[in-house]
Specification:
Number of helices: 5
Order of helices and strands: HHHEEHEEEEH
CATH architecture: Roll
CATH topology: Nuclear Transport Factor 2, Chain: A
CATH class: Alpha Beta
Number of strands: 6
Radius of gyration: 17 Å
Largest sheet: 6 strands, mixed
Helix content: 40-55%
Strand order of the largest sheet: 2-1-6-5-4-3
Strand content: 35-45%
Structural class: alpha+beta
Shape: globular
């Protein structure tokens, strides 16, 4: 058991080092971005609309299968409906996160995150799997989300069709 745990820990450390090597960002910057990405999910899970909206930079965009939202107000309107609808009773779990910086502009970064949306209020099941492409910018010394493009995996559409029947 100890050998499995140390092997797993070594793999995680190697993976983390590899991700940092691909970026010109310092480890502290990478950690700050990871915190923003984690809060994104936690604020949704907790229904914290204000916390979620505080993660966004000026002039944000958010593209997902439900629409294209091109302003702070549009994103907030969508998120209010999402939190009281589909996201209610769900948990967003992130994995396979890669973070890279813009070599020309260290105040910009891109994160690619695989998400699982899991039912937690009722009998647990995976409701959706998603790949998020997140652009971040540094504003007033803080990393903020500038744009998000969500690509929901094909199975989600099948789930929605089955729910209509």
């Amino acid at each position: 058991m100890k050998k499995r745990i140390s092997t797993l820990l070594a793999a995680v450390l190697i993976s983390s080092a590899t991700l940092m090597a691909q970026s010109t960002l310092k480890p502290k910057e990478v950690e700050s971005i990871r915190v923003v990405l984690s809060r994104w999910n936690q604020f949704q899970d907790d229904g914290n609309l204000n916390g979620f909206m505080n993660l966004w930079a000026a002039n944000p965009t958010f593209e997902n299968p439900f629409g294209q939202f091109n302003s702070f107000e549009e994103i907030k309107g969508f998120e209010q409906n999402y939190l009281s609808g589909f996201a209610n009773g769900k948990r967003h779990l992130a994995s396979n996160t890669t973070i890279t910086s813009d070599p020309q502009d260290k105040s910009k970064a891109v994160a690619i995150v695989d998400l699982m949306v899991v039912e937690v209020k009722e009998i647990p099941y995976i409701a959706a799997t998603v790949r998020a492409n997140v652009s971040l910018v540094k504003e007033d010394g803080l990393w903020k989300v500038k744009s998000v493009a969500l690509a929901i995996d094909e199975g989600f559409n099948k789930l929605m069709e089955a729910a209509k029947k």
